[in-house]
Design a protein that fits this description.
- By secondary structure, this protein is mainly alpha-helical.
- Helix content is 76%, strand content 0%.
- It is built from twelve helices and no strands.
- It folds into two domains: 62 residues, Arc Repressor Mutant, subunit A, CATH 1.10.10; 120 residues, no CATH class.
């Protein structure tokens, strides 16, 4: 069984054969989400794409919300594996860990699939409570990861202040969603921009004034 199917089997506690079907359903759901958006992500559309019955999809995902959760969970874990699954910085070097984390965050905006996925989640979360909860879970994980990089740079600093700094970091780096869309070269080719952003994120992490 592939690693992806093993993950899905563990998540839903199903048999090997069932995990194969679940993987097909979820991966078809991801494709529909990326190609057409959340409004097209229905059990009937997935069934038609896979040439199976609607009941077959409903057997594993009885509600629309359970399907959405599986698709979002799967794609988020794929995103994390691609962008943060092979960090190379020395685990005993807090500065190197922080810098690599920030640069990986900048680089991820070159991933078109990632941009579409998060844009769809953020947009649909504004009109659907289920997706809003999933969005919040994802961003709480982002914040947790950021805190784990900021905290070692600030021994003795109160946790409330560290969280504020981490939130500013998340806010700034998430703004690259928009900037990388209308100025893609800043992320892909402008090393001066990348290095300046890295310096400023280091200043934010330490509670220092942002300068040149």
């Amino acid at each position: 069984m592939s690693e992806k199917r093993q993950h899905l089997a563990r998540h839903l506690d199903v048999t090997r054969k069932g995990a194969r079907r679940i993987a097909e359903i979820v991966q078809a759901g991801v494709s529909i989400l990326l190609e057409e958006g959340f409004t097209a992500l229905t059990k009937r559309r997935i069934a038609a794409r896979l040439d199976i019955s609607h009941g077959n999809v409903s057997y594993y995902f009885p509600t629309r919300e359970s399907l959405w959760r599986a698709v979002i969970d799967y794609e988020y874990k794929e995103y994390y594996r691609k962008h943060y699954g092979s960090l190379r910085a020395d685990p005993d070097d807090p500065q190197a860990l922080f810098d690599e984390f920030v640069l990986r965050w900048i680089d991820e905006y070159l991933d078109r699939e990632m941009r579409i996925f998060f844009s769809q989640v953020l947009a649909f979360a504004e009109v659907n409570e289920t997706v809003a909860r999933l969005r919040d879970e994802i961003y709480e994980m982002f914040l947790k990861e950021t805190l784990s990089r900021v905290r070692p740079l600030n021994p003795g600093v109160p946790e409330s202040e560290i969280e504020l700094r981490a939130l500013v970091l998340v806010s700034t780096l998430e703004g690259l969603h928009a900037v990388s869309a209308f100025r893609p070269g800043l992320v892909s080719r402008d090393d001066a921009f990348r290095q300046r952003l890295l310096r400023q994120m280091n200043a934010v992490a330490r509670g220092q004034p942002i300068g040149e």
